[in-house]
């Protein structure tokens, strides 16, 4: 799943050609979900992950507000990357290393190669300042990082993971295009233990705290943190850590009462096929935040997908 700009889907009513029989497999029978989970607590890890993702979200909020064209570079895959990408990964990497120095492994999306090139010093200094400002506002560690410290923290995300031990998986900004246009994006963080996803945290800095059809948030407050520990349920709270709310699976059984959405970006979606499937199933409802039943998207990379598995399982 990619937290890009979301595209509300309202299929038009047309006569459809016959489709092949359609069947649905529950998450418990899907190969991407583990049927056997070791009974143990990951409370300490979840607390650290929430802290790291929240700090990264605050940094990203600050950068987005003052977004300048000079902040944007170009990746090999031609998707834009910003100061916030690097700062987010540096912050998450630093926090997790501080909390778990003896067992730290991070599969991240960024590295410092481009930041070490001639002409990137100003960019590196800005990233370093943003990271240090974030750490000062948190007040937990009492350190000031040098530019080299920040570059090393970014490069700490070079782990290849594996089926042994524990590995954190991070997408420092999932939805870069949405971020650049002032829209939706997320910081996605997950923990794998012996190859199984055991917790996930999704920080959504621009997501409203209440559904868009709910009038209980008169100030249009935004900034959500979704998190889950395997076997422990899924929850949502504001980025400040207050008012935790349990996230539950909908009891809707009639497809006509269900809602779905898909990625706004057509490059990794099949809008025509999604619409066809929705019509065949009789799904007509508009998508409202907080009332999502179905999401349609093509396959993703590990850092895009991992944090969502325990949240949706």
UniProtKB/TrEMBL annotation:
Keyword Hydrolase (UniProt): yes
Q: Which GO terms describe its biological process?
A: inositol phosphate metabolic process; sulfate assimilation
Q: Which residues bind Mg(2+)?
A: 109, 171, 173-174
Q: Which UniProt keywords apply?
A: Hydrolase, Magnesium, Metal-binding
Q: Report if keyword Magnesium is assigned.
A: yes
What is the E.C. number?
3.1.3.7
Q: Which domain of life is it from?
A: Eukaryota
What reaction does this catalyse?
adenosine 2',5'-bisphosphate + H2O = AMP + phosphate; 3'-phosphoadenylyl sulfate + H2O = adenosine 5'-phosphosulfate + phosphate; adenosine 3',5'-bisphosphate + H2O = AMP + phosphate
- Return the Pfam families for the record: Inositol_P
InterPro entries assigned = DPNP, Inositol_monoP_metal-BS, Inositol_monoP_superfamily, Inositol_monophosphatase-like
One GO MF term, please?
metal ion binding
Signal peptide (from-to): none
Q: Which cofactor does it need?
A: Mg(2+)
What NCBIfam families is this protein classified in?
bisphos_HAL2
Give the protein's biological function: Converts adenosine 3'-phosphate 5'-phosphosulfate (PAPS) to adenosine 5'-phosphosulfate (APS) and 3'(2')-phosphoadenosine 5'-phosphate (PAP) to AMP.
User: What family does the database annotate?
Assistant: Belongs to the inositol monophosphatase superfamily.
Q: What is this protein called?
A: 3'(2'),5'-bisphosphate nucleotidase
> What broad taxonomic lineage does this protein's source fall under?
Eukaryota, Viridiplantae, Streptophyta, Embryophyta, Tracheophyta
């Amino acid at each position: 799943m990619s937290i890009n700009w979301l595209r509300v889907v309202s299929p038009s009513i047309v006569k459809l050609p016959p489709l092949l029989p359609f069947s649905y497999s529950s998450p418990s029978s899907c190969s991407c979900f583990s049927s056997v989970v070791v009974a143990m607590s990951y409370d300490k890890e979840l607390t650290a992950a929430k802290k790291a993702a929240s700090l990264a979200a605050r940094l990203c909020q600050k950068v987005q507000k003052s977004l300048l064209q000079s902040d944007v570079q170009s990746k090999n895959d031609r998707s834009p990357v910003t100061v916030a990408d690097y700062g987010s990964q540096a912050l998450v990497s630093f926090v997790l290393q501080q909390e778990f120095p003896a067992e730290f492994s991070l599969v991240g999306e960024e590295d410092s190669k481009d930041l070490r090139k001639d002409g990137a010093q100003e960019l590196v200094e800005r990233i370093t300042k943003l990271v240090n400002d974030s750490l000062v506002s948190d007040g937990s560690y009492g350190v000031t990082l040098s530019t080299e410290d920040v570059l090393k923290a970014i490069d700490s995300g070079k782990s290849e993971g594996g089926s042994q031990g524990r590995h954190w998986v991070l997408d420092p900004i999932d939805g870069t295009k949405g971020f650049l246009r002032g829209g939706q994006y997320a910081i996605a963080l997950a923990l794998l233990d012996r190859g199984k996803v055991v917790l996930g945290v999704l920080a959504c800095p621009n997501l409203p705290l209440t559904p868009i059809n709910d009038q209980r948030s008169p100030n249009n407050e935004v900034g959500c943190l979704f998190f889950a520990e395997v076997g422990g349920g899924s929850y949502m709270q504001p980025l400040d850590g207050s008012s935790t709310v349990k996230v539950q699976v909908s009891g809707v059984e009639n497809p006509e009462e269900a809602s779905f959405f898909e990625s706004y970006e057509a490059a990794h979606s099949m809008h025509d096929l999604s619409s066809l499937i929705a019509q065949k199933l009789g799904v007509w409802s508009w998508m409202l935040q907080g009332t999502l039943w179905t999401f349609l998207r093509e396959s993703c990379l590990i850092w895009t997908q991992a944090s969502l598995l325990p949240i949706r399982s």
